[in-house]
Amino acid sequence: MNYHIMTLFPDMIDMAAHTSIMGRAIANGSISLNIYNIRDYTLNKNKRVDDYTYGGGAGMLMQAQPIYDCYRAVCENIYKANPEVSGKKIRTVYLTPQAKVFNQGMAMEMSDEEDIIFLCGHYEGVDERVLEEIVTDYISIGDYVLTGGELPALIIMDAISRMVPGVLGNDESAKTESFDNGLLEYPQYSRPEEWMGKRVPDVLLSGHHANIEKWRRTQSELRTKERRPDLYEKYLATKETV
Ligand code: ADE
């Protein structure tokens, strides 16, 4: 999995992505990360990348030219690194609140790609014409407005990377966690058996695997019903049809 990020704030991506599990995955070659500073591609002599919005309105808009030239450079580098994809349209994600909200299914589906380009917007947005030209997927991470697309890009990369072979160790399985079966994960406990007067549920100490499985499923259902009734309704609907 090769990520290619177009941004005005490369340090933000660089620092966060080189930490923890993503950092380890980059170091062991399971994923790669190529960061492009859009400002490097502007033809403006003052290095500007934004301008006023036609029709008026507050705030500045990112202009089409630097983004498009940056995108062309990203594609050329992808084609150079892998001639097999040469000339093919590369999956290009624009992070925006005006889009469908990201979920586990989308992370799973995108983890099959070899290359993904992320365009991180800033200011009041991006000239629509360049989006029409390059973007294949518009994705939001939730119904709130952030100052830029860098954090959403990091979140999406993190969720996709967990699905890429070699990223998680054997004891960090990407399966059997929240959402895999349409339910939230059950509660978990580690040592000691008793802490602040609270005991670990007996069934988990019993060694009886079938009972443990049953208990966990019930806990998952209860937790989902209480915390995410919307998911629980969906879970019930699919359970009835199988
Ligand atoms: N950019 C600004 N807000 C955003 C959001 N909620 N999701 C994705 N990109 C964004």
Helix content: 25-40%
Strand content: 15-25%
Classified by CATH, the class of the largest domain is Alpha Beta
- Overall shape: it is elongated
CATH architecture of the largest domain: 3-Layer(aba) Sandwich
Q: Tell me the name of the CATH homologous superfamily of the largest domain.
A: SPOUT methyltransferase, trefoil knot domain
Number of helices in the DSSP assignment: 9
Q: What's the total count of β strands?
A: 9
User: Could you tell me the radius of gyration in angstroms?
Assistant: 22 Å
Could you please say which CATH topology of the largest domain applies here?
A: Alpha/beta knot
- How many domains? 2
Bound molecules: adenine
Stretches where pLDDT is under 50 for at least 5 consecutive residues are none
How far do the termini sit from each other? 34 Å
Structural class: alpha/beta
Provide the succession of SSEs. Answer: EHHEEEHEHEHEHEEHHH
Largest sheet: 5 strands, parallel
Q: Tell me, rounded to a whole number, the average pLDDT.
A: 95
Main-sheet strand order equals: 2-1-6-5-7
